[in-house]
Amino acid sequence: MSHNHEDVPHLNEFLKDSPKNWGKWGPDDEVGALNYLTPEEVLRGTAAVRSGKTFTLGVPIAHPDGDPIWPGRRTAQRISIRDRGDFLAGAGIDYAGGLQDADDMIIMMLQGSTQYDALAHVWYGDQVWNGYPAEVTAGGIKKASVFTLADKGIVGHAVLIDMARYRGKKVLTRGETFTHEDLLAAAAQQGVTIQKRDILLIRTGWIDSYYYTPDEEFYRDFLEPGLTYSPELVQWFQDMEIPNLCTDTIANEVTIEPETGIVLPLHLALMRNLGITLAEILSLDKLADDCAADGQWDFLYSAGPLKVWNGTGSPVNPIAIK
Amino acid sequence: MSHNHEDVPHLNEFLKDSPKNWGKWGPDDEVGALNYLTPEEVLRGTAAVRSGKTFTLGVPIAHPDGDPIWPGRRTAQRISIRDRGDFLAGAGIDYAGGLQDADDMIIMMLQGSTQYDALAHVWYGDQVWNGYPAEVTAGGIKKASVFTLADKGIVGHAVLIDMARYRGKKVLTRGETFTHEDLLAAAAQQGVTIQKRDILLIRTGWIDSYYYTPDEEFYRDFLEPGLTYSPELVQWFQDMEIPNLCTDTIANEVTIEPETGIVLPLHLALMRNLGITLAEILSLDKLADDCAADGQWDFLYSAGPLKVWNGTGSPVNPIAIK
Amino acid sequence: MSHNHEDVPHLNEFLKDSPKNWGKWGPDDEVGALNYLTPEEVLRGTAAVRSGKTFTLGVPIAHPDGDPIWPGRRTAQRISIRDRGDFLAGAGIDYAGGLQDADDMIIMMLQGSTQYDALAHVWYGDQVWNGYPAEVTAGGIKKASVFTLADKGIVGHAVLIDMARYRGKKVLTRGETFTHEDLLAAAAQQGVTIQKRDILLIRTGWIDSYYYTPDEEFYRDFLEPGLTYSPELVQWFQDMEIPNLCTDTIANEVTIEPETGIVLPLHLALMRNLGITLAEILSLDKLADDCAADGQWDFLYSAGPLKVWNGTGSPVNPIAIK
Amino acid sequence: MSHNHEDVPHLNEFLKDSPKNWGKWGPDDEVGALNYLTPEEVLRGTAAVRSGKTFTLGVPIAHPDGDPIWPGRRTAQRISIRDRGDFLAGAGIDYAGGLQDADDMIIMMLQGSTQYDALAHVWYGDQVWNGYPAEVTAGGIKKASVFTLADKGIVGHAVLIDMARYRGKKVLTRGETFTHEDLLAAAAQQGVTIQKRDILLIRTGWIDSYYYTPDEEFYRDFLEPGLTYSPELVQWFQDMEIPNLCTDTIANEVTIEPETGIVLPLHLALMRNLGITLAEILSLDKLADDCAADGQWDFLYSAGPLKVWNGTGSPVNPIAIK
């Protein structure tokens, strides 16, 4: 299933009949399907909380053993600016009273860890989400940046679908695919129903495997497991009014669509056309283990990406509240 | 009330009778008073949710007009790595199918925006929170870094005290102080009770004033309004088992304690000694306006600082869920 | 002499009769007038050395009092990564034998200090030096970057013209202009002849004044002294086969051409059209004082900008050898 | 010849009888053996110029295939801030007259390319060059930083010794060593004499091999070829009053001294104790080929490291003028 680059159909053609939510929330909308997250949805999420257990879903940043990252991006670098050593060496700040402090900085890609994508992060043709011209991305995203997502925040009722557990695996295989019908079958086996406007979390086990897999194996061919495109899947996402898709992979979908060779068609069908917000690189193993143990696969989900002005995305540490 | 540097008492002496929670949660504890945030507290927070309204409390990062920041730190810099312009100029990536994308990076101080401090961020003498030697901060914080706070997450029942509104002001004055008794009086006026283990948010109006105040005025003498130290105040925080103090100022307390000239004594009495987590630079005006309008000053609070390995702090975008 | 933006003539029109050296050194040339710097010119430079005195012409980088820089660019930031403090605090590296070390990083604009411009650093219309399409600059300069200049290096016979001293001033005034005829008059007064293929250094005193002038005064209206455009001046530079123009200003010419309001027309007439390399922000006061003292205004000039791949420019510390 | 870390002798003991030049140029000296580079030496260098050929000796920075670098340091990152794409997409700056420009920044280690070390870059015991306490390095080097070297500049008479060619190899083998007596034998074979106060360049072929060697091979065990320590070698460098040692390796000496297991003892014997300036990662193959062709192995050498305030080192692009 390898594809000659020139034989791969262009997205303009491939998605020409794919549904769009452009204009649905007005010509100035910048948050897309997050509009589904009304106060009622927040209350529906709150109502799912039973035990008060919480799980944070971000991965470590600037871990000494490395961070999982899209090839070509650099991993985050944390740098100590001042610490105890400076004070011992007489180079600290002489604060009145004797306070000492440690300060540091970070250099990182905004898509370099657990992250929300701005709706305008990817596109095809000449337009991003809601029909804004792609030129709004130049020199920083002027429309549909991560700032607007972050300003709204993401709070709602979420459900976790554990595809790896469903298939009896610790982690799905490189390039292994699944569809929305597989999601429904897994949900049925888990005893949970995916409801309209649910924030959808899908576990493959992939990201957490980074921490026990050699780099050359994890990144080989850069081929992750994930959802694959079909018109029916896209329609299902639209009908279900999914506001936000979150996975424990770097790309949120199988990197290269096997039938056509197109790179990341779901990013475009779901995010660019339907305005569905994407969150990636979540760590879901601990949450999944707990859900399997107590049988509760739904919860309140709260995520506050950073309000980076004009940003293409933002690192984030989402929280599941069960 | 200006002080000669050499006449300022040392914190070793000044706080020698101040209470400590060291060891209370074991010798290996790294999250301090966040231990108070048990599942019961999460449920108490959830129970406070009534309308489903949400408010994000982070400030913009890398805003073109500047970001409020502790003097001497550099503001965040967001940098476009790839965007529409690159594709127009033939320098984009040739993804099969025609996807185009925008990517960016950020360079920022970990304490350079709305933020959580690691418990080991500041100290006096030779020890940080829980008695770890201050050397744990050298080259990156090895104990009580922001990673452990972020790994736990901060979810609980919160109350907002609006000191500016209480005093009939849009924003408190430079250097204006208040005590825990003022907090209690304001709470009474608001018709809300500060309960044990509440996450405490205090509004002064200061940070939001940054956006309508000239820099030379905002930063003049770098003197913010805020809480002032007293032994009674420290005891009250300990007795109330406050897990987390959040304010809309850069320092969370009046920068220089007026009686003694000590810099940031509450950081040390509350965070270093009692393990109370500090969050700073929150934007609270919109939330406060809503609370004043509907009379509900308590809510579920959810904050996910980034899991920066060895970090002194982390940018964050907390969410209030009413 | 302020100009309405829309009344300013476009460079396409303004320079339509201005001479070009495009193609003179072949269609693949990337170093322009540096081609004049043949071995013969190196020998002419070496022959000018008499006393063996040397002068370095770079300004400090990351100076605690700030660096002179084009408004909108950030000054360089040097950051200690490891130093004695880390070793005192037990966070150094345990090198066998007991070596200890200090290590740094730097974040800086490539045009943020004493610098060479890549020939493709600025342009008008759709083409850069030698007729390459301006698209060669996208995502990093593919043609006529600073790498090619740096790979050649700049070594030749140079002459210093001290315009400030000629006009009896310590430093020229904000916006004060001069022409090639003024250069010739100053040279005559200095008793030196500008010869064909001389590297031309012009002193205004401006950059060195940065270190004793308040920022608000130095940067007011950002209006430097400098050369002004005239067709005759451009022709003179071409006839003289000047390979490299170096000044102690940020822009190398008066920032806004007073007659027309055009920004930096000489950059375009000299660099983009004639291929003359520009070096800026040189510190020339010490060298000029020495030349005035010993009467020797010419010397061997040696500059090695860094070989930054695809770079728009490079910091540099040129050396004058008298 | 592998060594148990604890069996490796400490440099305090190992070098206790090694000669020092501390105080030789006064208690405030910060440039050490560069003091040997008097105007007379500059004239001696100039006198060596015969043909006017020039060679730049820096390696590419931020090369797409990577840069050779000491393990643990990050390679330089050049980032486009503005370019043609921004103007095409309407995000450029609207300069009056129509100028367009490209602007870059760089993030790099100061020891991350062809570089000069500050004299205080490495030390043992509690003191750096000239007896300054090692605390001068904390938070940025206050004494004997690269600024002082850069402010002086390095200009003098240089000789190239081609150890690889002497041994009939394109490049010396991993871990292959040589001594000052080997240098003298090679010089004799080349027909050149190493004179007092010569800047000494040694070619191993190592750095240029980086560009045709797979990374896993180049960095395996990180073991470079190079000089090895002996008391006689140190004495020879002192007697010869060598101001500056430059090589085409990352470490300038065999990384781990084979007899004792000490890391980089020559850095300490030569730089810390004798004040000899070290330059590393030079590209010498082209220069060596030319010298072999014309039989001229000596030349004028000119290097201007950047004047980085408090810096541990600086990237540089030295020039050999034959």
Order of helices and strands of chain A: HHEEHEEEEHEHEHEHHEHEHEHEEE
Assembly state (oligomeric): homotetramer
- Count of individual beta strands of chain A: 15
Mean pLDDT of chain A: 97
Spans where pLDDT lies below 50 across 5 or more residues of chain A = none
Give the termini separation of chain A.
42 Å
Helix content of chain A: 10-25%
Strand order of the largest sheet of chain A: 1-15-13-7-9-11-12-5-14
How large is the radius of gyration of chain A? Answer: 21 Å
Name the chain pair with the biggest interface and residue counts per chain: C-D, 109 and 109 residues
Biggest β-sheet strands, sense, barrel of chain A:
9 strands, mixed
What is the topology?
The structure is a homotetramer of 322-residue chains.
Chain A: H1 11-14, H2 39-47, E1 54-56, E2 77-82, H3 84-88, E3 100-101, E4 103-109, E5 115-117, E6 122-123, H4 146-152, E7 154-162, H5 163-166, E8 177-178, H6 180-190, E9 199-203, H7 206-209, H8 215-218, E10 226-227, H9 231-239, E11 244-247, H10 265-272, E12 277-280, H11 285-294, E13 298-303, E14 313-315, E15 319-321
Parallel strand pairs in A: 7-9, 8-10, 9-11, 11-12
Antiparallel strand pairs in A: 1-15, 2-4, 5-12, 5-14, 7-13, 13-15
